[in-house]
């Protein structure tokens, strides 16, 4: 595991260039438009099934078709450039990766895998670098405060990752790739559906010699990894996902999902420089729908974030989180409205050689949500109360409104509150923890406009998020305290269209992430104030070609804004050739102009690199 000082939060800052699309269009979803124009079903924005067009929240959906087309090397590469997203990485693929959604902190985004919360209760983050891209079927990114549905952490939004699942009666798949830095990737799986049930099994393996994670000079500067180790920092990841479901009759059905990724990661550091990790979720759900107006769901699950660290082969420490989860949700149709009532139970346990004064806590949450459409207007309102054994009670709420004032234009507005519970490091880390800490709180307002015309779609959203009681070092007591405050303003734009066979997509984000507390007026670190992405693709019978350009403006790596990180532009190229209906050959060239850049000070990023992949998947 990479260096995890409990109170050196990544400093972040901003700047990026934007992508411009075919004159002036923008769209709220980066996912490929299907030729049929069918709208995808999403669940993250409401905890109920609805189409993308119905959602009132700002949402981005990336499906497997787009993942295969873009050929991203990692999940972070896939997410980079989506509206509101900034990413900081500590030395390339496999290394610690932080997500900053809409300018909020790296631990202010909730990550779900197949509906189950994934993350560390000690650091407060999810190890997204350990989720292989080959295991992913779809990603839903919902931006805005969603504690009123999910509880802690959803200040900036929710990212839900769905692992590969059945798409036909019997669909096998296989891929093998080789690339720069002695990288090898392989995956194989099979999925199918029958009259009463479905199943999916997917296995993947990746290994690479990697790059030198931390550049020389970090030891003298006492920054970055705090060590000088000029070597290759490789990684290895093996993952398996299993899914299955069965319909007993018209009223009852059940499903089981499991995902586990085991990794070995080398990096640079003075306290540890190698980590063996496990990211795991296991869950089961029972669904009961006695009538068309009533649906009940009972879910039980477990997630784990495990890490054993060592220094030059000698064991140093363990930081592991075990999380038990339970949920009961009822959805009741009342006339033209949908009422959802739910109860969530969560127990966090930590296992570490570090002596925490408290090593477990329980959270009980109850929530209610009302969704209704009145002619051309729609409403979504929710409220939730969480009772935590560590800090007591917390109530959050949100309201979203939409007005379809023409057949192609929708105006949206929303307001909501959210919170983030302090981590075990915040509370109990020896010599640093402060058990009197309160949750961090936020208030968010947003105004949006989106359109969907025959030529494509676009969206525009402006928001302000005020975060109080941010946890930072309090010099008055020599401990962390609820002493900071931030105000984040931003505008997001995105869109897609097709012109003369060329599929064009783009997004741009402007942020003003200001610290209003101890460093008043300073920019929050590692957030890009201006960033954007532009994708272009074209198919020519068996061939397809494409390119992506991502740009980010200058930002800072520290709260004092004295350590700038330069702006940068990355260009990726891709080509694919369908050998047969089932076999495809893909070639991706990333960072083709060999740009040197850093998203976190002193941490190197990959230079020019290529990946050649052969894929097999017969027609569904």
Structural class: mainly beta
Strand tally is 33
| Cα separation of the termini | 40 Å
Indicate the radius of gyration in whole angstroms.
23 Å
CATH class of one domain: Mainly Beta
CATH architecture label name of one domain: Beta Barrel
Tally of separate helices: 5
What fold name goes in the CATH topology slot of one domain?
Maltoporin, Chain A
Instruction: Report mean pLDDT, rounded to a whole number.
Output: 91
Strand content: over 45%
In the predicted model, the low-confidence regions spanning at least 5 consecutive residues are 1-37
Major sheet: 22 strands, antiparallel, barrel
CATH superfamily of one domain: TonB-dependent receptor, beta-barrel domain
Task: Name the shape in a single word.
Answer: globular
Written account of the structure:
This protein has 620 residues and is mainly β. It has a domain at 41-188 and 333-616: TonB-dependent receptor, beta-barrel domain (Maltoporin, Chain A). Helix content is 4%, strand content 57%. It is built from 5 helices and 33 strands. The strands form 5 sheets. The protein has a 22-stranded antiparallel barrel. The longest helix has 7 residues, at 64-70. The radius of gyration is 23 Å and the shape is globular. Residues 1-37 have low confidence and may be disordered.
Quickly describe the structure:
By secondary structure, this protein is mainly β. The chain contains five helices and 33 strands.
């Amino acid at each position: 595991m990479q260096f995890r000082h409990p109170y050196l939060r990544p400093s972040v800052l901003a700047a990026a260039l934007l992508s411009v699309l075919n004159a002036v269009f923008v769209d709220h979803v980066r996912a490929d438009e299907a030729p049929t124009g069918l709208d995808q079903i999403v669940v993250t924005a409401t905890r109920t099934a609805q189409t993308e067009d119905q959602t009132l929240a700002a949402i981005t959906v990336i499906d497997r078709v787009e993942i295969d087309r873009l050929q991203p090397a990692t999940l972070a590469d896939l997410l980079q450039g989506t509206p509101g997203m900034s990413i900081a990485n500590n030395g390339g693929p496999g290394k610690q990766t932080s997500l900053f959604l809409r300018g909020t902190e790296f631990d202010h985004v909730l990550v779900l895998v197949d509906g189950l919360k994934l993350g560390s209760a000690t650091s407060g983050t999810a190890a997204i670098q350990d989720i292989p891209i080959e295991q992913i079927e779809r990603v839903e990114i919902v931006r805005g405060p969603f504690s009123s549905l999910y509880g802690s952490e959803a200040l900036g939004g929710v990212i839900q990752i769905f692992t590969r699942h059945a798409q036909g009666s019997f669909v096998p798949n296989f891929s093998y790739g080789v690339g720069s830095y002695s990288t090898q990737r392989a995956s194989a799986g099979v999925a199918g559906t029958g009259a009463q049930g479905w199943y999916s099994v997917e296995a993947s393996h990746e290994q690479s010699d990697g790059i030198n994670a931390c550049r020389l000079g970090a030891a003298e500067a006492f920054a970055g990894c705090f060590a000088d180790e000029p070597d290759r920092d490789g990684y290895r990841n093996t993952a398996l996902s299993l899914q299955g479901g069965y319909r007993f009759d018209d009223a009852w059905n059940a499903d089981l999902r499991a995902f586990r990724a085991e990794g070995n990661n080398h990096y640079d550091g003075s306290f540890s420089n190698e980590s063996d990790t496990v990211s795991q979720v296991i869950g089961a759900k029972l669904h009961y729908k006695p009538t068309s107006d009533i649906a009940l769901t009972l879910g039980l699950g477990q997630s784990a974030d495990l890490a054993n660290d060592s220094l030059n082969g000698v064991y140093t420490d363990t930081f592991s989180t075990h999380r038990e989860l339970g949920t009961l949700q009822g959805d009741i149709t009342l006339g033209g409205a949908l009422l959802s009532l739910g109860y969530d139970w969560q127990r966090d346990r930590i296992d570490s050689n570090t002596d925490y004064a408290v090593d477990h806590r329980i959270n009980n949450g109850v929530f209610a949500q009302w969704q209704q459409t009145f002619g051309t207007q729609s409403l979504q309102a929710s409220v939730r109360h969480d009772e935590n054994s560590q800090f007591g009670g917390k109530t959050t709420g949100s309201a979203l409104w939409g007005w379809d004032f023409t057949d192609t234009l929708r105006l949206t507005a929303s307001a909501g509150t959210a919170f983030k519970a302090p981590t075990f490091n915040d509370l109990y880390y020896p010599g640093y923890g402060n058990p009197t800490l309160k949750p961090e709180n936020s208030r968010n307002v947003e105004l949006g406009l989106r359109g969907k015309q025959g030529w494509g779609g676009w969206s525009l959203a402006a928001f302000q998020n005020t975060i109080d009681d941010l946890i930072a070092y309090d010099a008055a007591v020599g401990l962390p305290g609820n002493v900071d405050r931030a105000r984040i303003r931003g505008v997001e734009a995105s869109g897609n269209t097709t012109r003369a066979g060329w599929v064009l997509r783009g997004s741009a984000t402007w942020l003003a992430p200001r610290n209003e507390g101890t460093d008043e007026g300073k920019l929050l670190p590692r957030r890009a104030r201006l960033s954007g992405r532009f994708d272009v693709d074209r198919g020519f019978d068996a061939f397809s070609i494409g390119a992506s350009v991502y740009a980010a403006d200058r930002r800072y790596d520290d709260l004092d804004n004295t350590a700038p990180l330069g702006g940068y532009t990355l260009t990726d190229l891709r080509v694919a050739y369908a050998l047969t209906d089932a076999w495809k050959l893909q070639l991706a060239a990333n960072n083709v102009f060999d740009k040197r850049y850093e998203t976190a000070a002193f941490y190197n990023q990959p230079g020019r690199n290529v990946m050649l992949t052969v894929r097999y998947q017969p027609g569904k």
